[in-house]
Design brief:
About 45% of the residues lie in helices and about 15% in strands. By secondary structure, the protein is α/β, with parallel strands linked by helices. A hairpin with an 8-residue loop joins strand 15 and strand 16. The relative contact order is 0.09.
């Protein structure tokens, strides 16, 4: 099975590795690993299509393997196994790009089915040699960071197909822009793009808006009316905030995706559909499935091609380009003289956490352009919530006082070097959420050397992890 897709199985218990090898071996080439280190070594030397990984291991946890996988730019689906199931761990894993997770003990048939679905997704999302890795984006969807370049590669791969797409990400990250980019690069681009915000339509009206209705089907239905599914025939339909659908509407949407047909309210016949569906949400759908508020069968039909948009705080290197683009776009509309940012203003934009993501940045730039009186946006022109943010204030803190000349030069240099080294270790661990592998790679040193520096300076990786 040399050409079979590689399935990395990570567990420190040999009997569990043996069981999983027997269960998933028929669908792929199993690559066993008994520790985080063995797993990261395997990722470096093997072509891996799917990862099945335990949470707890002697030298770390499964999230470290997930971060190492994503750090290598891989989109391989990651399945987390745990006997220590907590909502926090599951949510953190899904936020960092995990495909799914299972709780031990599990049914062998269930995990085989999950791996088979993951392999199908991996095949669809395989890298495309013709994709341009240097693109800065599509229209208003901009970015040069590694995570955004990966989003662009996925769009290039997914757009020509008719596969259902699910776009995940926090509010304001640009989910609708991704849906439009997919439509514009698809064979359906000649037809109008349709978008429905499921959270913005009254729950009592949403069903009729989506599926349409027949005359007399309810009070006020004076005539037949097609729904948005019929209206978007031969085109692309975005259902934004799909996590807000009530269960009865979810059931009908599941049937629409299964049968590729829609039945209007008050009718018995089904009308065939030719619609490409893109769902989008900021909600944690796997957690909703486990809580019983989102249908599992609908989740399986949406979880075909998944694009996860990173929050702006995780791609700070894109902020200058986005800010300048927004200023060029909005400045003339508000009759602003400003055409650039001062260094302190740009430094503040880069230091801010942006809880509202790209949408908040766009609003802040427009507001600053209105207040600016010169050709530059100054720090004082920025919104007060941005100027007064702790992260911005810390960046603008006065420089550290010189080291007092109270001892020999060599001793002072050694003390300053130790302080700088410890500060760097803390900063890089904070940036990588306590992921020692990612931090060491970023620092350009061996992992064992990084661990020695941590021990020498009393730094503990767990203090900087973002999730359990």
């Amino acid at each position: 099975m040399i050409d079979a897709p590689g399935i990395l199985v990570v567990d420190d218990k040999p009997n569990m590795v043996g069981l999983l090898t027997k269960v998933v071996g028929p669908v792929g080439r199993v690559v066993p690993a008994g520790s985080v280190r063995e797993a990261t070594d395997a990722l470096a030397r093997e072509t891996i299509a799917v990862v099945v990984c335990d949470l707890r291991m002697p030298d770390g946890d499964g999230l470290e393997v997930l971060r190492a996988l994503r750090g290598r730019g891989s989109t391989a689906p990651f399945i987390l196994m745990t006997a220590y199931a907590t909502v926090g761990t599951a949510v953190q894993a899904m936020r960092e790009g995990a495909y799914d997770y299972v709780t031990k003990p599990f049914d062998p048939d269930d995990i085989r089915a999950i791996v088979e679905r993951a392999l199908a997704q991996a095949e669809i999302l395989a890298p495309v040699p013709s994709a341009d890795p240097e693109t800065d984006g599509y229209g208003a969807l901009l970015g040069r960071s590694p995570r955004m370049r990966e989003v662009f590669r996925l769009i290039d791969r997914i757009a020509p197909t008719d596969a259902t797409v699910l776009v995940l990400g926090e509010t304001g990250t640009g989910k609708e822009l991704v849906a439009r980019a997919i439509h514009d690069r698809s064979p359906r681009a000649q037809h109008p793009f349709f978008a429905v915000n499921c959270a913005a339509i009254a729950r009592s009206l949403l069903e009729s808006e989506l599926f349409g209705y027949a005359k007399g089907s309810f009070t006020g239905a004076a005539g037949d009316r097609p729904g948005v599914f019929e209206a978007s025939s031969r085109s692309t339909l975005l259902l934004d905030e799909i996590g807000e659908l009530r269960l009865s509407v979810q059931a009908k949407l599941t049937r629409v995706l299964e049968e590729r047909a829609v039945k209007r309210l008050g009718e018995t016949r089904e009308r065939p559909l030719d619609v490409r569906l893109v769902g989008a949400t900021h909600r944690d759908l796997p957690a909703m499935v486990k809580a019983g508020t989102f249908r599992e069968d609908l989740w399986f039909r949406l979880n075909v091609c998944v694009i996860t948009l990173p929050p702006l705080r995780d791609r700070h290197e894109d902020i200058p380009m986005l800010a300048r683009n927004f200023l060029a776009e909005r400045g003339p509309l508000v009759r602003s003289r400003a055409s650039r940012f001062s260094d302190p203003a740009m430094a503040a934009l880069e230091a801010y956490a942006w809880p509202g993501n790209v949408r908040e940045l766009r609003s802040a730039v427009e507001r600053s352009a209105i207040l600016a009186t010169g050709e530059q946006i100054q720090f004082e022109d920025l919104p007060p919530e941005l100027r007064n943010a702790p992260s911005v204030q810390q960046r603008r803190a006065p420089p550290i006082e010189p080291v007092p000349a109270t001892g020999p030069l060599q001793a002072a240099l050694a003390e300053a070097r130790d302080a700088t080294t410890r500060g760097y270790i803390v900063a890089v661990l904070r940036r990588f959420g306590g992921d020692v592998v990612g931090a060491a790679t970023h620092a350009g040193i061996e992992r064992e050397s990084f661990y020695r520096l941590m021990r020498r300076h009393g730094v503990v990786a767990a203090d900087y992890r973002k999730g359990d």
